[in-house]
Design goal:
Number of strands: 11
Mean pLDDT: 85
Oligomer: single chain
CATH superfamily: Mog1/PsbP, alpha/beta/alpha sandwich
Distance between the termini: 35 Å
CATH class: Alpha Beta
Radius of gyration: 17 Å
Order of helices and strands: HEEEEEEHEEEEHE
Strand order of the largest sheet: 4-5-6-10-9-8-7
Helix content: 10-25%
Strand content: 25-35%
Length: about 250
């Protein structure tokens, strides 16, 4: 029996949590889930992004501040030729109006005793290809694989492939470049996931993704804000900032 699309994500999330060992996660309070559910039935991805202030784009330069542990705020920056996605469904993301090209930021806590260089390839797939993630609206992505893993001194860059489930029961193959950094003095990995449909990868999608991935940087500054979702500047604003769009397509 097919689960109706409007609640498939909720049901799949419950099943996923029941089958897995408990993971330390920040829970999303209702007040922060601005426009989380839309006419399309998609709920807001849980990317653990706690925004200190509004995301900005000047030309191709995207910048934002995210709250991290250790009394730090991360100053995130990357370049993208795509437009900044707006609305309560998004945190830090650029996307194309057509074709599905885009880049988004995701934050994840490091397992105890591990650093960026010791994380397994599967750890990255579990973070990105989960039912709570950016591509889990109709179920966790399938056929996820790591195609390349480049470990630099302070950065990891992975090439991955996966297929996104559609509401009609089919799936759409995608390719992505994941640029991952561990800001000094924190217990988090900050990732920029830049992806395209597999069909568009060799038609400009790969070039756009690699340009964003290579430009990704995270600096840190001291912060007095508590490391909790209540510190997000959007918290408690049920209608969001005055200029926030209500649609979930980002435009």
């Amino acid at each position: 029996m097919r689960i109706p699309s409007f609640d498939r994500r909720v049901c799949l999330r419950a099943l996923s949590l029941a089958a897995m060992a408990p993971l330390q996660q920040l829970q999303l309070p209702p007040a922060l889930a601005i426009s989380a559910t839309t006419m399309a039935g998609k709920s807001k991805p849980e990317l653990r992004v706690i925004l200190v202030d509004e995301v900005k784009q000047t030309g191709s330069a995207v910048s934002a501040e995210v709250l991290l542990s250790g009394g730090k705020a991360g100053v995130v920056a990357f370049d993208s030729s795509l437009k900044l996605a707006e609305g309560g469904y998004y945190d830090i993301e650029t996307k194309a109006k057509e074709g599905g090209d885009g880049s988004y930021v995701q934050v994840a806590s490091l397992p105890k005793g591990q650093g960026l260089d010791t994380l397994t390839k599967d750890w990255f797939l579990q973070q990105i290809c989960s039912v709570e993630g950016r591509y889990g609206a109709y179920g966790a992505p399938i056929d996820a694989k790591v195609l390349a893993d480049d470990k630099a001194k302070d950065k990891r860059q992975l090439d991955i492939s996966f297929s996104v489930l559609r509401p009609d029961g089919g799936d759409t193959p995608r390719r992505a470049v994941v640029s991952a950094l561990q800001p000094a003095g924190t217990g988090e990995v900050v990732m920029l996931v830049s992806s395209s449909s597999a069909s568009g990868w060799k038609k400009g999608g790969e070039s756009i993704a690699r340009t964003s991935a290579s430009s990704f940087k995270v600096a840190t500054r001291p912060s007095d804000l508590a490391f909790s979702l209540g510190s997000d500047y959007r918290f408690g604003k049920t209608s969001g900032p005055a200029n926030m769009k209500s649609r979930n397509d980002g435009f």
